[in-house]
Amino acid sequence: MSLHEIVFEGQVLPGHAPETVRQNLARVFQADTARLDKLFSGRRLVLKTGLDASAAEKYRQVLERAGARVQVNALAAQAPADAAAQREPALGRLEVAPRDEYMAAFAAVDAPDYGIAEVGAALAPPQPPRTAPALDLSALSLAPAGSDMGQAKTSTAPAAPDTSHLTLSQ
């Protein structure tokens, strides 16, 4: 039995207004604004995977009735874990072969396939050399090593005001 996936890239069918399609998909998926923004980001998103042909066709019909342009892609037959790890990822996307039940939750993650750089390779593009800013330090001077920098000035307490002419009355 062949399995299929439903893929959406944020495109709408001709003759449908994008705002109307957003509202329709909000009802279909019961999605909030943040989830709709993610759906219409233009990135390739796998909406559903592991469907048989009839279920994939039902999903396609519902989504196209809502005005969304979707793709139904046939999935390759399941290969052993070793063969899946050696297989080249399609379209520069990372494929994760689960090693245990915890990692199985991440099998459908859509992530770029970033390679690993060789040891010693530059990871960032070369930057132009930086020059120190031009500062005028001519007004500054240094004391010789071991010299006393001076004594801290002691502050004298202000004189108490003369209050001899004041009286208290009842």
What does this structure look like?
This protein is of the alpha+beta class and 170 residues long. Helices cover 22% and strands 14% of the residues. The chain has a three-stranded antiparallel sheet.
Question: Strands, helices and their partners?
Answer:
Blueprint: E1 4-12, H1 18-29, H2 33-39, E2 45-51, H3 53-65, E3 68-74, H4 81-86
Antiparallel strand pairs: 1-2, 1-3
What's the quick description here?
By secondary structure, this protein is α+β, with helices and mostly antiparallel strands. The protein is built from four helices and three strands.
Number of strands: 3
**Numbering strands along the chain, what is their spatial order in the largest sheet?**
2-1-3
CATH class of the domain at 4-75: Alpha Beta
- Span between N and C termini? 108 Å
Main sheet, how many strands, which sense, barrel? 3 strands, antiparallel
CATH superfamily heading of the domain at 4-75: Ribosomal protein L7/L12, C-terminal domain/Adaptor protein ClpS
Could you report the average pLDDT, rounded to the nearest whole number?
80
Estimate the strand proportion: 5-15%
The SSE string, one letter per element, is: EHHEHEH
**Tally of alpha and pi helices:** 4
- Could you name the ranges where pLDDT drops below 50 across 5 or more consecutive residues? 79-91
Q: Helical amount among residues, as a percent range?
A: 10-25%
Structural class: alpha+beta
Which outline best applies?
A: elongated
Assembly type: single chain
The value of Rg in angstroms is 36 Å
Supply the CATH architecture of the domain at 4-75: 2-Layer Sandwich
